[in-house]
Amino acid sequence: MEFSLTHKEHKPLQVNPIKHSQPMGSTLAFLGVKGCMPLMHGAQGCASFTKVFFTRHFNEPIAVLNTSVSDITAVLDGGDYSILMAIENIQNKEKNLKPSMIGLHTTGLTETKGDDVRGVGTHIEIPYVFVNTPDYEGGMESGWALTVTAMIEQLTDSATEVKANKLVLLPHLSMQPIEVEKIKSLCEDFGFETYALPDLSTSLDGYWEEAQGKLANGGIGVDEIRALGDCATVVTIGHSMKKSAAALQKKNPLIKHLHFDHLMGLDGCDNFVAQLMKIRHTQPEPLMKRWRARLQDAMLDSHFLIGSSHFVITGEPDMLTGMCALIRSVGGTIDAAVSTTFSDALHTIDAEKVFVGDLEDARLFFDGADMVISNFHSERILHSYHNTALVIRGFPNYEELGNQLKNDQLYEGSAYFLFEIANALRKVKHEH
Asked: For the domain 22-138, what is the CATH code?
């Protein structure tokens, strides 16, 4: 394994970037709270791009509101006025719109101004959570994690006791709604009262409801977030979520923290299930054991194709960690793992090269790759690489429908993922 850089990128610009901004990750996190109104404190274009991005990825009408900071107000306004006026205008325009919470997240413009987003909350009657997410640092994954931490710090009540069977799941950014649902369901099978923060499994899962798009119809409730301090166990999936768990433990030192870098592949799933068995002193459901055996069979069936293949994978650090581990477990060779931003999670990845970069950097490895696993933007590049298969993962995916129902987690999802990439490899190898 080789690292081409430390915390800094190796060139002053990105060409064909795979990285997205912190405010986008923050928006998505707020969409996992029932009735929340994400409010981006910045220029109108920032919100417009984010709205189009998520609307196309999830194929759902998603409203992203913003304070419409202009070049004039950026100089003359102290910040309070823009935020308060935005909230007032939204409420005047939508009389029936009654958000359960306002999730204010900043952008590079308002962070550079230094607006007092904390102080403005004293003038707002609706529950209010603010998070500093400048887009000139970090990325989409860190924006999501910062927002989860902010919700815990600003909403969750302190507690001195715990409910033995109450569990809080803190999933990383790259998990699709169905994946959160599957993990919650597994925990519930062990007898846990399970909550996810954020919970996209009931807000962006493709389920159609009236007034869809104005506010999140599903997700975890504000009152439920307030009451998370009495959980006995907090489970983090992905390195980026560790600080969020630490924030929850500050609310109640009795909370036990279980961390997993990923829940893909036999080892990752076994570690997770073993911990749940240890807490609940019970055996897993027969269907879970069946899926474990199916994953073992999938590993055997697919290792001839995957084990003889070379891969290039790009994406958020936590997503890379799980996918690389699963592919390596069946013998695949990962020539390059290209991350959007730096994370300590990158040190755990077993690949020939691991570095922070863009699609221009990743393209240097495409000639020797049998498969590229990347987001939608790799498709136009790979049109000229007829011997290289593409499997789309991460944000955005404008090419395929049903992103919210793609499951790569746990025994079941890992088996499906192995078959998907093996079939894609078989097709390209047979054709060429």
From this structure: 3.40.50.1980
DSSP 232: E
Q: From its phi and psi, is residue 212 left (phi > 0), alpha (psi between -120 and 50) or beta?
A: beta
Backbone angles phi, psi at 120, to 5 degrees: -65, -20
Neighbours of 400 (CB within 10 A): 11
Each residue's pLDDT tens digit, 191-211 = 999 999 999 999 888 876 655
Q: Which residues, other chains included, contact 282 with Cβ-Cβ below 8 Å and sequence gap of 6+?
A: 190, 191
Q: What are phi and psi of 335, to 5 degrees?
A: -70, -35
Model confidence at 13, pLDDT cuts 50, 70, 90, reads confident
Q: What 8-state DSSP symbol labels residue 118? A: T
**Beta-bridge partners for 37:** 102
Q: Is the peptide bond before 396 cis (omega within 30 degrees of 0)?
A: yes
Q: Are 352 and 3 in contact (CB under 8 A)?
A: no
List the one residue out of 149, 354, 316, 335 whose CA is nearest residue 238.
Answer: 316
Cβ atoms of 263 and 322 within 8 Å: the answer is yes
CATH number of the 163-284 domain: 3.40.50.1980
Spell out the residues 6+ positions from residue 59 whose beta carbon is closer than 8 angstroms to its own.
Answer: 206, 401, 403
Query: What are the tens digits of pLDDT across the range 40-68?
Result: 988 887 788 888 999 999 988 888 888 87
Domain residue ranges of the chain, discontinuous segments joined by +: 22-138, 163-284, 287-431
Q: Determine phi and psi for 340, rounding to 5 degrees.
A: -70, -40
Identical fold between 22-138 and 287-431: yes
231 CA to centre of own chain: 23
CA-to-CA distance for 106 and 114, rounded, in angstroms?
A: 10
Instruction: Using the structure block, give the residue that is written with the tokens 């998370």.
Output: 228
CA–CA distance, 179 with 176 (Å, rounded to integer)? 5
* Residue 253: partners with Cβ closer than 8 Å, 6 or more residues away: none
CA within 13 Å, CB half, 183 = 32
Cis peptide before 177 (omega within 30 of 0): no
Q: Is 312 helix (H, G, I), strand (E, B) or coil?
A: strand
By DSSP bridging, strand 371-374 and strand 310-315 are parallel
- Cα distances from 251 to residues 152, 219, 260, 331, in angstroms, run 9, 22, 21, 43
Instruction: Please identify which residue in the block is written with the tokens 């958000």.
Output: 99
For the four alpha carbons of 55, 60, 66 and 70, in that order, the dihedral sign comes to: positive
Q: Which CATH architecture has domain 287-431?
A: 3-Layer(aba) Sandwich (3.40)
